[in-house]
Amino acid sequence: MASVTAEPIDTTIEVPGKRTPLVTGAHNYGTVTDAVCRLAECKTPLAWYVALGISASLMGMLFGLVGYLIITGVGVWGNRSPVFWGWPIVNFVFWVGIGHAGTLISAILFLFRQDWRTGINRAAEAMTIFAVICAGLFPGIHIGRVWLAYWLFPIPNQMAMWPNFRSPLLWDVFAVSTYATVSLLFWYMGMIPDLASLRDRAKGKIQQFAYGLFSLGWNGSSRHWHRYERAYLLLAALATPLVLSVHTIVSFDFAVSQLPGWHTTIFPPYFVAGAVFSGFAMVLTLMIPVRSICGIKDLLTDRHLENMTKVIIATGSMVGYAYAMEFFIAWYGGNRYETFAFINRAFGPYAWAYWIMVTCNVISPQLFWIKKIRTTPWMIFVVCIFVNIGMWFERFVITVTSLSRDFLPSSWGYFKPTIVDVLMLIGSFGLFMTLFLLFCKFLPMVAMAEVKSVMPRPHGKGDH
Amino acid sequence: MDRFLFPKWANTIVPVLGALGAVGVLYVIGMVAFGASPETTDVGYQPEQPLPFSHALHAGKLKLDCRYCHNTVEVAGHAAIPPTSTCLNCHSGADANGVVNTVAVHSTSAKLAPVRESQATGKSIQWRRVHDLPDYVYFNHSAHVRRGVSCVACHGRVDKMEKVTQVEPLSMGWCLKCHRNPEPNLRPPEFVTKLDWAPDGDPHEVGEKVREELNLNPSTNCSTCHR
């Protein structure tokens, strides 16, 4: 066991010639396991039940509304000609985007051998799964005839009919379902050693059986570990192009169309950057309170937060660059419809949405250049909330402003959401939070096995 | 060791899981086959009609041409069910004065009571439709009949049916199969109502000849049927 010398340490300070420890406090292997497993083992606090109650009610409301929608029809939303893609698609892109940070953290940062990912990857992957579930719901119910959704799959049938493989909406089906499956496998596989730890510590028979079942007889032999690490590397290498392609395909929903404001080749990388941007903001929004409440500040240090804010500056600046480039091309391209589309964004009836978006996405992440903001959790939290809002508005602005005023002035309109639109967005947060709270309670929130691999060996990087 | 590892007997679960997986695959294949099976698509549907009209008698024994009753079939999209007056051409009952036409056939038959009732009241006979396509399919009879697609190709040997039965699935896959490869079902248009007609020689070659003569290019795009 590592020796224990507790001295408070500020992990956000760079010490020349020395790497900052990723685990602070007087932690050794045993105490890390204790800190993470405690959450699943201790008596559940009342606050958890209250939070779950609220989230589950909102989730119930969402499913109720979905039922109402199916019975009544999609007209319960504010989608009207010419804006047929309203909030449901905005929410879809928003949630898919959120999901991308998880895979970025667990796969791309893994390929880059970024050890600081170990503290956050589990929660970020869980966030991916839950966000993809929320995302998958919206296109599913947006189609008007929900009961024919299976026509999207290439199944041999009596109609001799197959889906049209030219539509990016069909690619979405494959992209999102593949993404969901691979993320789930990746997340689950990464969790097996930790589930085994929970199994071994379980007091009750039921817990022991449940964790035993899901840890698939893991016993930590070197042969297990060897294959596990191979498989993890392969999955990371497969998940990396997947992250980039999934949001690219989502962006194709727009970029492949002919609409001024949508038909832009910058969309694929710009959407991916936006996805990472919003995803990281969401990870931070969740983890800043969670690490305090769950007492895992030592594993998820200020340094981790600071590193994530740096990713936010990078991707936020890419998004800002893309906004500028869209305007530049609108002017430079000399196409009057495209010029108009962008003037309309900034100064038309949706100017309010556009400027909210610019303020939140372009200006607020730049605050992270200031070290004080980057290293103060509550300030990071506030900025990240703004980023989340801004990124929802980005999708709103792209979808709605482009549709509401396009080629023919006779088919211009103004989109007004209905109460169902609003409540479904809120309800989707309920669904997300319900799943996330269940995750926090029953599964290891930090990848213990991975954190231990970046701690100092009985002598040797950590805060001791 | 106080941890819960899978005991030895758990190994026996593996073949069970494998078997379940195989069953799952079979299930999917089965469901697809079931969805496309003739039963699902109503082949063999044979409802009770309000009166026991026999195609076997009229078209088979009496050798009425199909177009005697279904007289719109060459000119209209819809192949008409004959009105009561067509029945009355032969089967008229007593008129208002109680006089029965001397050439009337079975003018008092109990089986024909619904026809006479329809004659007296002017209400239509409520025939039950056997071949019922959904209303989003715009099937056109004349387009097929005039191009040498025989009645028998889609309706079977109606001249041998006591009660009309659906013999083909009328599914989209079935329609498309013929639109993609029409030759086996084509014949010179003058023989379309000859249900027992068979080509001399290879049916495929006959069909090909008809196709060439009439310049037939059956379309398979959506707007052909789903207008």
The chain-level mean pLDDT of chain A equals: 89
Share of helix of chain B, binned = 25-40%
Point out poorly predicted stretches of chain B. Answer: none
* Termini Cα gap of chain A: 12 Å
Can you count the beta strands of chain A?
0
Radius of gyration of chain B: 26 Å
Mean pLDDT, all residues of chain B:
88
Q: Any idea what the shape of chain B is?
A: extended
Q: Give the quaternary arrangement of the chains.
A: heterodimer
For the record, what CATH class of chain A applies? Mainly Alpha
Name the shape of chain A in a single word: globular
Which chains share the greatest interface? A-B, 18 and 18 residues
Low-confidence region ranges of chain A: 1-5
Write down how many β-strands of chain B occur, each being a DSSP E stretch of 2 or more residues: 0
CATH topology of chain A: the name is Formate dehydrogenase/DMSO reductase fold
Number of helices of chain A: 15
Protein name (chain B): Class III cytochrome C family protein
Keywords (chain B): Membrane, Transmembrane, Transmembrane helix
InterPro entries (chain B): Cyt_c7-like (IPR029467), Multihaem_cyt_sf (IPR036280)
Pfam family, one (chain B): Cytochrome_C7
Q: Can you summarize this structure?
A:
Chain A has 464 residues and is mostly helical.
Care to describe what's here?
The complex is a heterodimer of chains A (464) and B (227). By secondary structure, chain A is mostly helical. Chain A has one domain: Formate dehydrogenase/DMSO reductase domain (Formate dehydrogenase/DMSO reductase fold, Up-down Bundle), CATH 1.20.1630.10. Helix content of chain A is 67%, strand content 0%. Chain A is built from 15 helices and no strands. Chain A is globular. The N terminus of chain A is likely disordered. Chain B is mainly α and 227 residues long. Chain B has a domain of 27 residues. Chain B is extended, with a radius of gyration of 26 Å. The interface between A and B is medium-sized, with 18 and 18 residues.
